[in-house]
Amino acid sequence: MNTLGYAILSVLARRPCSGYQLSTYLEVLWPAKHSQIYPLLTKMEQKGFLAFEHVEQTGKPDKKIFSITEAGKEALALWMKESPSDRIVRDEFLIKMYSMWFTDEENAKKLIHDRISKLKRKVSLREKKIIKVENEGAHHASKHFGRYVLLNRSNFLDKEEISWCNWVLKLISNTNFFKLVLGFLSAGTLNQINQSINFFGELPI
Amino acid sequence: MNTLGYAILSVLARRPCSGYQLSTYLEVLWPAKHSQIYPLLTKMEQKGFLAFEHVEQTGKPDKKIFSITEAGKEALALWMKESPSDRIVRDEFLIKMYSMWFTDEENAKKLIHDRISKLKRKVSLREKKIIKVENEGAHHASKHFGRYVLLNRSNFLDKEEISWCNWVLKLISNTNFFKLVLGFLSAGTLNQINQSINFFGELPI
DNA sequence: AGTCGCATGTAAAAGGTTACATGATTCG
DNA sequence: CGAATCATGTAACCTTTTACATGCGACT
C-alpha cells in the first residue's frame, strides 16, 4: 500500500467517512483528487483494510461510509513504527525567487506581495479552526491532538514565511538590488542580460 | 513545457551545466532524478530552448554542457510573469503526527526527536553554504541573491519547525497526553482503541 | 575488495492530474 | 439563473520513481 493508503487509514481510524469527506480531510495530510481516492478505497476494501456500508439519502446522492477494520488498524500500527520518508516540496514560487534577478523589480515585488496575501489568507482560516478545536476542549487529550498540533504547525511556518518575505522585500529596497543589477547590464534587455551571465563569481547553483 | 523545464532554464540562465550537475543543483528548486532530466534536456534542445557542446574528459566520462538560448531566455522571462501555482507538500511525518494518539508515547517521541535531528543536520549544512555566499560578497547584487535568500528561507522555516517540535514534546509531557488517552482506553490494545473511536467530539478530520 | 563520484541514457511501473459523465438541492 | 455542495466513478494523460545498463578512477 502507498502513503495515500495510510493517510486514508489515519483519517478513518478516527471516524468512518465517505470518499467525498475523505478528499476534504486529506487536504492537510496528503492531498489527493477524488479520482485517486475512490479506486484506492475499493482496492483497500478488497484487501480487507476497510469495510463500507451503503447509506441512502434523499435530496443528496447516496454514499458509501467506509470504516477501518482490525486488519487496517494493524497495518496502520505497524506503519507508525517505520521512520517516515523525506518530505517532498514542490513550489514554483521558489524557482521564481531564484530567478528574481532575471525579471524586473515590479514583477519581483508583485510575486512576493501575492505570496504574502495567500499566506495571510491561509493563516486566518486556520486560526478560526484552531479556536474551534480549543473551544471543544479537545486539544490535549484526544484524537484531535494531532489535528490541533498540525494546524498550529502550518500557522507557525506560514507566519515565518511571511516574515521571510518582508525580509526579502527590505533587502531588495535597502540594497537597491535591481538598480545594481541594471547598472551592470546598462539597460536590461535580454541581449544585455546575456552578456553579463558570466560576470559574477563561480558559486554553485 | 512543464515546471521542471523552467527550473532547468532558471539554473542554466546563470551558468551552463551538464545534466549531472543540474540534478544536484535542482535539489533545492525542483527535485528530479537524472532519468527525468536527461530526456527533458534532449527535448528542450530540440525545441530550441537549449544548446549543448560535447566536452571530452580523461579519467571521467565525457559530458554535454548545456546552455540557455535566446528562445529559452524569452520563455523564462514570460513564465516569470505568470503567477506561480500552489505549492505541493507531501510529508509522511505529518500523517504520523496526526495519528500520534494511535501509537505509544515512546514511538511518538522518537518520531519527533528523529525529525529534530534531521532538521538540525540540514540547518547546519545550509549555514555553511550561507557563510560561503556571504564571503563571496555576492548576496545582494548578483544572480546569487536568489540562492542566498532561498537558503535563508529554508533555515528560517526549519528552525521554526524545530521550535514547533519542542512545543509538541512539551505539550505531550505537560498534559500527560498519552496517559490520559490510555486512561480512556483502560489498557491500549487495538480492540480497546477500537471501542473508543467515537468517544470524543465530532470535530472535522 | 568495495563504495563513492563522475557521467549518460532507456524502460517500466507507480503516482497524480485533468477531463468526461451524471444529477438533485440550496443559496445568493 | 448560475454557482456551489454533495456524491461516485472511469479514462486518458502527464509526472515521477525505480530499475536496468555501463565503466573508469580515486579513496578507504
From TrEMBL, chains A, B:
Coiled coil: none
InterPro entries per the UniProt record, alphabetical: Tscrpt_reg_PadR_C, Tscrpt_reg_PadR_N, WH-like_DNA-bd_sf, WH_DNA-bd_sf
Every Transcription regulator PadR C-terminal domain range: 89-172
Gene3D superfamilies per record: 6.10.140.190, Winged helix-like DNA-binding domain superfamily/Winged helix DNA-binding domain (1.10.10.10)
Protein name: PadR-family transcriptional regulator
Organism expressing this protein natively: Paenibacillus pini JCM 16418
Domain spans labelled Transcription regulator PadR N-terminal: 8-77
SUPFAM superfamilies: Winged helix' DNA-binding domain (SSF46785)
